[in-house]
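User: What would this chain look like folded?
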Amino acid sequence: MTCLITQALYKGYHLIVMSKFDIEKWCAHVQNYRCSFSYIVPPVVLLLGKHPVVDKYDLSSLRMMNSGAAPLTQELVEAVYSRIKVGIKQGYGLSETSPTTHSQRWEDWREAMGSVGRLMPNMQAKYMTMPEDGSEPKEVGEGEVGELYLKGPNVFLGYHENPEATKGCLSEDGWFQTGDVGYQDAKGNFYITDRVKELIKYKGFQVPPAELEGYLVDNDAIDDVAVIGLESEAHGSEVPMACVVRSAKSKSSGTSEKDEAARIIKWLDSKVASHKRLRGGVHFVDEIPKNPSGKILRRILKQKFKGAAEAPKAKL
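Assistant: Here's the prediction, encoded as structure tokens.
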């Protein structure tokens, strides 16, 4: 669902709510109603950066867009801005925090691309280590990656009739363990890079899928992508594998799937550390499964490709 806001605040709000998203209808609404602001999700950002229909419409009335629901990388923000010259800011929150905890100011969107902004008033936040040996988590320093903990008057009191679930994420002194991974920069901007449960564990290293996806969507051969972790007997651990929706440009090039997969792997190798390489390969799919808010349904892909980490390619 996408909500578009037109006209200035002093004239009142006019809202357009789409019950089901369609990129061409969205563009038509922006053009026809001269919309100035839109709430979007990362899959919409991806379409705005790559879909050919966008060039058919006048989107110049847009002043800013706000993205939420899933991590949004700097690469996607830059791709959209270079194409339609509209900035994208972010926010962050959860149902358990009523919901917003962070918001990026309009004037900061370009200075801190990929950030969810700064902490809202009357709240506290910290990033903590994610030990796997049962030891107590410790707070990490500026720029270091950890799990986000939040505390404030808007944090919930617990899950209804589920004390075990409450105990698992809410401390006695009110710190809520979000399950989201990220870091804070020197200027107080917060970044969310992935979910703790989605981190790929490769030989003691933690690989965030969203980070790799941020790089991969910048490749001309890729229209959409999801990175998952699959168990590999050959490596003795999980390995990152990319499920790729191949672009029309790539398909029309005459390059085989095998050769294109090899090119993508080599291309990414030059951009990431060794432990983040696509050792599980590249598998071409028709579409990336997502929920209505745009979050990738990785469990579906994991089930589909279970045991396929060593396979050269597959088709969803």
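Residues 28 and 57 are 7 Å apart (CA to CA). If you want, I can go into more detail on any region.
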